[in-house]
Amino acid sequence: MDCLELPIHPLPQLITVGHSFWSADMQHFERNFDVYDVLLIKQGRFFMTENDKPYELEAGDILVLEPGKTHWGQRPCGESTELYWFHFLHDKPLRTVPAEDISWKYIFKQGTDHDLRPTEQLMYVPKYGRIDLGPILPILDDMYRLHNVMSVDSALELQSLFTILLSRLQAAAMPRTPVRSRAIADLTTDYIRRHRYEPFKADQMEKELSFRFDYLARCMKQHTGMSPLQFAHHLRINEGKELLVNSTANVQQIAEQLGFENANYFIRLFRQTTGTTPLQYRKSRTGFV
């Protein structure tokens, strides 16, 4: 299944949502506008062409029509059809990518209280294909109900439900059987989590996981954006941040708790990662919420 890659920030904005019943002789008109038009078929059949590419939709199918592209129904439904649809406003897709090629475990940079803009984050929406509508339809029903009684006390709830809907659509696009490289990456990250307080030993990782280290590293880099050692450092430094803010332990004690034999190495790594020393980080977080 292909997916549309979209930036998360700013969040997509819902425009409208509908639930329709089409008779066998009904056919969609031609249209081109600057919003996303999403179709989900509950039962029946539906025909739609986008920029000369025809799609035939059946029960359980989704099709996301993109802004700026012309779409029209190339033929009538041919049978009674029930569908849900919604329009939303957002930037055009960054790219179209097969679901199996997406790094679903990719680790985004964390925002801090010094940032003035959100860090770059991505989301994925299935372009076209068969999905499980079970987790989707109850949300669409709630959205449709709220949309029909739009008021101050329901508008924010409607947008919140829309965000949940996008999250479930993304989950529906994830391959149920992970590709081999992602399975290996998951295996490696689990190993690193379990051994994060121990000295990093590539040969021990090879022995326990029964794969060459360079292959494990390639899989991790592909799916998380980090090497095994970088991921181990990521886990320990993040835990170190929590200890600096939420405990009274000194830097030496925190370093030992995280498995660093040398506190100076912990300080140097912390500074490389965060741009500040552990003590400066602790001081900067005092009184912050």
How far is it from the N-terminal to the C-terminal residue, by CA? 42 Å
Instruction: Tell me the radius of gyration.
Output: 24 Å
**If you average the pLDDT, what whole number results?**
93
Structural class determined from secondary elements:
alpha+beta
* Number of continuous helical runs: 9
Using the 3D structure, state the CATH architecture of the largest domain.
Answer: Sandwich
β-sheet strand percentage:
15-25%
Given as residue ranges, the uncertain stretches (5+ residues, pLDDT < 50) are none
Indicate the CATH class of the largest domain: Mainly Beta
What portion of residues is helical?
Answer: 25-40%
In total, the number of strands is 11
Strand order of the largest sheet: 2-8-3-6-11
CATH superfamily of the largest domain: Regulatory protein AraC
Apparent shape? elongated
InterPro entries: AraC-bd (IPR003313), Homeodomain-like_sf (IPR009057), HTH-like (IPR037923), HTH_AraC (IPR018060), HTH_AraC-typ_CS (IPR018062), Tscrpt_reg_AraC-type_HTH (IPR020449)
Keywords: DNA-binding, Transcription, Transcription regulation
GO molecular function: DNA-binding transcription factor activity; sequence-specific DNA binding
Domain HTH araC/xylS-type: 186-284
